[in-house]
Design goal:
This protein has 487 residues and is mainly α. It folds into three domains: 181 residues, Growth Hormone, Chain: A; 54 residues; 226 residues, Up-down Bundle (Growth Hormone, Chain: A). Helix 1 packs across helix 10 and helix 2 runs antiparallel to helix 8. The N terminus and C terminus are likely disordered.
């Protein structure tokens, strides 16, 4: 197909291209919230143990987070349109595989494949917006559309996931990605213009391998701890392996010509504070969705659809207070918003830690959701700005991707760690409360969730401390962060 005629440097198909990118981005955003709603049904259908249930979340987020930086470089060098289409087709194939999975291992593998192809798709989509829209006002509008999808797509996923799980099957929560991806591919071929980056085209494959294997070893170590317990020596083998691999990754970054993560990106305190804060937020927050979805459906006996609607106030709170944060950021600067928001998020998790098997959604769950969502929105918006502070054009792409990477990796580690804490706490509670009889397992499971919520609150407080100590730029030093929209 011939390239579209570009007049005055403007692609005449740019708004059609944005529609295609929006469809693909919506699919990726939908996937996360849909899977959370479908998880209790999938766990029951495939006989997934409590210790292994977190792999439905972590298999995806680990692959996505650890390969995102490499995926961005591949898209830049091979061709953004080409990788965008490959990402779509691969994501659709992996989703179909997960939808027909007959074993938990196949489901986990499909989720990892989804993450790997998502790591190609997501940075290609952002890069395509950046190169397709050359007029600043149009680019800002395009990124605004992208941001709206990121914020609102999760809410759509909750309802769609609940509907599909209740009236069809949890398998359709994965299968629905197939028609969406194929439509996007058919539209991408005529409407998206190919582009590539010039310059050094070498890839840091050793860095990608050591980082990915190191993180997988770390998460697997937590999973083994949940099964074997912390008291056995064999539990720590994978933690030692993870330490060796992640140390090797850092050393590799100092010697290769084109490192996956140039360490200079981490050298600036505001950027480093933003990434570390995002990592801690992901660690403390992601498991909340995992446990709360199980709690609503298994203990409050909500249907899948009702459970989806029950999460909507959280999405609404994020959307509303994201607008508030955008208005306040130029007036007060990032640190007050980040610290205040994280303290509020921690308070919400602590409030949620008071739930029991007989709690009320309206009085015990909803207030905690609203407090958490409003607080976290105050963190997300300024963290995007500080994550790009003084990065310059050369490192802007890596700096932007690092915000998402740190959140995804934090989420995968948090899901594994907090799931282990929840299981260990539940086991200890059951042993000490045998007098409860047949009800002991119900109370023990919820006690495990509440313990995990308390640890999650601790991670958010640690993130608040990081923001207070690291972030020192004022309201006049903010950089444009349109390209740092969170995926």
């Amino acid at each position: 197909m011939t390239k579209p005629h570009v007049e005055d440097g403007l692609d005449p198909n740019r708004w059609r291209a944005l529609l295609v990118i929006a469809i693909a981005s919506l699919m990726v955003v939908l996937d996360a919230s849909i899977v959370n709603i479908a998880l209790p049904s999938a766990q029951k259908a495939l006989h997934i143990s409590n210790a292994n249930r977190q792999w439905v979340v972590t298999a995806y987020s680990l692959a996505f987070g650890s390969l995102l930086l490499l995926g961005g470089r591949i898209a830049d060098f091979v061709g953004r349109k080409k990788i965008f289409i490959i990402g779509l087709i691969g994501f659709a194939g992996a989703s179909a595989l997960g939808g027909i999975a007959s074993t938990q291992a196949l489901l986990f593998g499909a989720r990892a494949l989804q993450g790997a192809f998502g790591a190609l798709l997501a940075p290609a989509a952002l890069s395509l917006i950046n190169v397709t829209f050359t007029i600043p006002k149009e680019r800002a509008r395009a990124f605004g559309v992208y941001g709206a999808i990121s914020g609102g797509g999760a809410a759509i996923g909750l309802i769609l996931g609940g509907t599909l799980t209740e009236y069809a099957s949890w398998r359709w929560c994965l299968g629905v990605n197939v028609p969406i991806a194929l439509i996007a591919v058919l539209l991408a071929i005529p409407f998206i213009h190919e582009s590539k980056a010039e310059g050094n085209r070498s890839y840091d494959v050793p860095g990608a391998i050591t980082a990915t294997l190191g993180l997988v070893s770390l998460v697997y170590g937590f999973s083994q701890a949940a099964i074997k317990g912390w008291g056995r020596a064999g539990t720590y083998d994978f933690f030692i392996l993870a330490a060796v691999l992640l140390t090797a990754f850092i050393l590799i970054q100092t010697i290769v010509k084109n490192p996956l993560l140039p360490l200079r990106v981490l050298a600036e305190r505001n950027r480093a504070g933003s990434y570390l804060g995002s990592l801690l937020v992901g660690t403390g927050l992601f498991a909340m969705f995992l446990f709360l979805s199980i709690y609503l459906q298994s203990f409050l006996h909500y249907s899948s659809l009702r459970s989806g609607f029950a999460f909507l106030p959280f999405s609404a709170g994020v959307i509303v207070f994201a607008g508030v944060a955008s208005q306040l950021l130029p007036k007060v600067g990032p640190r007050p918003l980040m610290v205040t928001g994280l303290i509020a998020g921690s308070a919400g998790l602590l409030l949620l830690s008071r739930i029991t098997p007989t709690s009320s959604y309206t009085t015990d769950v909803l207030p905690a959701m609203l407090i958490m969502s409003s607080g976290l929105a105050l963190f997300f918006i300024p963290s995007a700005s500080t994550g790009l502070h003084n990065s310059g054009k050369h490192d802007a792409g890596v700096a932007s991707a690092m915000i998402n990477t740190s959140q995804q990796i934090g989420g995968s580690l948090g899901a594994a760690l907090l799931n282990t804490i929840a299981i260990s706490s539940a086991t200890a509670y059951a042993k000490g409360h045998a007098s409860l009889g047949a009800q002991v397992q119900v109370f023990a499971s919820v006690h495990g969730f509440t313990t995990a919520f308390k640890f999650g609150a601790g991670f958010l407080l640690a993130a608040a401390l990081v923001a207070f100590l690291f972030i020192n730029i004022g309201k006049d030093s903010l950089v444009e962060s349109d390209e740092a929209v969170l995926i």
